[in-house]
Amino acid sequence: MKNPTSTCASEHLLAVEKVSCVYGGFKAVDSVSFELQPRELLGIAGTNGAGKSTLFAAIAGQQRASAGKIIFDGTDLTALEPYQRARLGLVRTFQIPREFKSLTVHENLLAGAPNKEGEQLFAALVNTQARQQRERELSEKADSVLEFLNLAKVRNVPALNLSGGQKKLVELGRVLMLEPRCILLDEPFAGVNPVLIDQLSEHIVTLNQQGIAFILIEHHLQALKRLAKRLIVMDRGSILAQGDPQSVLDNAQVQVAYMGGVA
Prior knowledge:
Elements: E1 14-23, E2 26-36, E3 41-45, H1 52-60, E4 67-72, E5 75-76, H2 82-88, E6 90-92, H3 105-111, H4 121-126, H5 128-148, H6 164-176, E7 182-186, H7 194-209, E8 213-217, H8 221-227, E9 230-235, E10 238-243, H9 245-250, H10 252-258
Parallel strand pairs: 3-8, 3-9, 6-7, 7-8
Antiparallel strand pairs: 1-2, 1-4, 4-5, 9-10
Helix pairs in contact: 3-6
């Protein structure tokens, strides 16, 4: 059931409408608007301080927008908490992975699993058989995700012992446990070696082909260019240019914003 603030459904999966985020007198995001189609793979680029991560936080709910609306599949998310947005299928990862360091890789994925039945603690304790069946199903699902992400070999390894790239994969696996419809990836290739960048890219393409929409924030412009069909470049909180990746990267204003060029 949709939130009472639901609006009429549209062809857009996500609509960001004149969203601003203000800290004191500083506008980190300044009246940004764009739409995301179902199954689209959109890239957002920009130099440090352009407002990309703040925009992500506003979309995912970690940051309250000072103005504007965020609509997901016809539902107004503006006043919803992050967990409520996640239940609707909108999830995000972070530039610095937030793994549970003391838990194994498998346990990290289980920690991200939803309680679909909405069981209360008392009911779960009483219905032991149902609880055990649910635990088996979630464990099998986690194993399936780990296999897909080529992480099965580190299933029982504590997350603190993983490489930076593996931690990015674990975080992706954790949000996949929520069966998302749209994933916001914040700097997925930062600090990742080239081999794992290729693996991550392949996983993103496969998931996108399976129907999950993506928005990627990324400084690795060539990797972003290969993945995204449409690119938005932000500068000082606003959208500087948007369109097909090559046209955007050839834009003179974008070249100036990056100073050293982006080819």
